[in-house]
């Protein structure tokens, strides 16, 4: 059922910033999915390379990547009513180092309607937004915040700082910081727009957190 759901979602997604689905077939009891081949690296690898050089990502490049992720996510949320639920730097490909391709919809779920909420929990505590940690229903705004580098807000923060916003020695410490939206401030030198965007997206209260159109 999970594989059928993933294939169904992949088949429905047609966007220049989402890795393209071509075909799927079963052979010898194995399901094969044929996808677009992306010649490039993940955003996580790119950020790690910048960090190893002791450098920072220029803000013009940061926004170039971030806006493409936003366009892919807006298509998912508003056009297809699909919540990715696994948005990480590892699932964002940089084709030829420049074009963003959103990948890995294995945990994605399709909402039943534009106002529906979901209740199933995915991933470990390290990767959950406050409403999931507190066992509350959630909507597509979970994609706006999914800590430990797993959301739009966390991804923007990590591109600016090269560190995930929520870290700790054990899952309980991380969970407490997530619920309290307690993360180190973005260092000086970044624009007021970046600071306000991070602050808005990492708001613990989902009612006050922007949706993708607001972002």
TrEMBL record:
GO biological process terms held by the UniProt record: regulation of cell cycle G2/M phase transition
Nucleotide-binding as UniProt keyword: yes
Gene3D superfamilies in the record: Transferase(Phosphotransferase) domain 1 (1.10.510.10)
Keyword Kinase: yes
Record-linked SUPFAM superfamilies: Protein kinase-like (PK-like)
Keywords: ATP-binding, Kinase, Nucleotide-binding, Transferase
Pfam families reported in the protein's UniProt record: Pkinase
GO MF, one annotated term: protein serine/threonine kinase activity
Protein kinase domain residues: 1-215
Name this polypeptide is given: Protein kinase domain-containing protein
Organism of this sequence: Emiliania huxleyi (Coccolithophore)
Lineage, highest ranks first: Eukaryota, Haptista, Haptophyta, Prymnesiophyceae, Isochrysidales
């Amino acid at each position: 059922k999970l594989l059928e759901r993933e294939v169904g979602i992949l088949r429905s997604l047609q966007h220049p910033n989402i890795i393209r689905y071509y075909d799927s077939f079963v052979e010898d009891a194995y399901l094969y999915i044929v996808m677009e081949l992306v010649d490039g690296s993940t955003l996580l690898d790119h950020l790690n390379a910048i960090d190893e050089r002791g450098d920072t990502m220029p803000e013009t490049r940061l926004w170039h990547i971030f806006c493409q992720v936003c366009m892919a996510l807006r298509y998912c949320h508003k056009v297809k009513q699909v919540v990715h639920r696994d948005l990480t730097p590892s699932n964002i490909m940089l084709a030829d180092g420049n074009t963003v391709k959103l990948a890995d919809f294995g945990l994605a779920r399709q909402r039943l309607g534009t106002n529906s909420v979901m209740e199933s929990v995915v991933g470990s505590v390290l990767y959950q937004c406050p409403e999931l940690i507190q066992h509350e229903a959630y909507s597509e705004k979970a994609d706006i915040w999914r800590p430990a580098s797993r959301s739009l807000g966390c991804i923007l923060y990590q591109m600016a700082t090269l560190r995930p916003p929520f870290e700790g020695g054990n899952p309980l410490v991380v969970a407490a910081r997530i619920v309290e939206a307690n993360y180190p401030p973005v260092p000086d030198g970044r624009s007021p727009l970046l600071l306000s965007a991070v602050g808005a997206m990492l708001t613990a209260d989902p009612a006050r957190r922007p949706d993708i159109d607001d972002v």
